[in-house]
Specification:
This protein has one domain: 4-Layer Sandwich (Purple Acid Phosphatase, chain A, domain 2). Helix 2 crosses helix 3. It is of the alpha/beta class. Helix 2 links the parallel strand 2 and strand 3. The radius of gyration is 17 Å and the shape is globular.
Length: 240
């Protein structure tokens, strides 16, 4: 048996090729897995569990069918889909897990994160993150009608792209000190995350012990996943 990890698909109506690639991934890879972990930014934006868009409904149906085949599906919020709630998770056959969860990955305690909270050098973003994660802000947004929420999501996407284009590359990546601190606090030597769109395997030292940080890639020209079993863990990509 094996488990799969994906993140940063940024599913959106404007990117039908990524949606097709995802469903192909379900039928050819995920169907054979013991568990599928989705580590955030699965959708490019999430405006509420009452979203009636065709893409949203199709994805829920596909995931639910996978869960009915016995594949456990776990979902972690990202910075684009943090409003996804219990109603949609149930509809899709998913279990919500918290950012910063530690799992026993075939004998290796492993810290799972989306990754945006590790980018502590980007203080402007961290302030924005704190605001949109507050229950008060989320309640105000979800109380608005769907058209207003769709417009807000588009505005936030444009603002994010504009802000990032003006920032230095190192600010947009994780802070090594924060990575070490989080891994030490969780008492793990293995971390899996996404968010930065910089797929790689990084060797480091945590509390005097050799450790590894494995970063998932975003789905654009290629699809990315991590496949782990009792004997190995691999970062895999394929052309879309």
């Amino acid at each position: 048996m094996h488990s799969l990890f994906i993140s940063d698909l940024h599913l959106h109506e404007s990117r039908p090729q990524i949606t097709r690639a995802f469903f192909q991934f379900l039928h050819t890879h995920a169907i054979h897995a013991e568990a599928l972990y989705i580590l955030g930014d699965f959708f490019d934006a999430w405006i509420g569990d009452d979203d009636d868009a065709e893409l949203v409904q199709d994805v829920a149906s596909g995931l639910h069918k996978l869960s009915e085949l016995g594949v456990a599906i776990y979902f972690m919020h990202g910075n684009r889909d943090f409003l996804l709630g219990d109603t949609y998770a149930k509809k899709a056959g998913m279990t919500l897990i918290a950012d910063g969860s530690v799992i026993d990955l075939y004998g290796t305690p492993t810290l799972l994160m989306h990754g945006d909270s590790l980018c502590t050098d980007d203080t402007e973003y961290q302030q924005f993150r704190a605001m949109v994660r507050s229950p008060q802000w989320q309640q105000q947004i979800l109380a608005q009608p769907l058209p207003a929420r769709r417009a807000l999501a588009a505005q936030l996407r444009e603002k994010s792209q504009s802000m990032n284009s003006l920032k230095a590359e190192d600010i947009l990546d994780v802070s090594p000190a924060e990575v070490t601190a989080q891994m030490a606090a969780a008492k793990v030597t293995q971390l899996i995350h996404g968010h930065t769109h910089r797929p790689a395997r990084h060797q480091l030292v945590v509390a005097g012990t050799s450790a590894e940080r494995i970063v998932l890639g975003d789905w654009h020209d290629s699809g990315w996943c991590i496949k782990a079993d009792q004997n190995s863990i691999a970062l895999i990509d394929w052309k879309i």
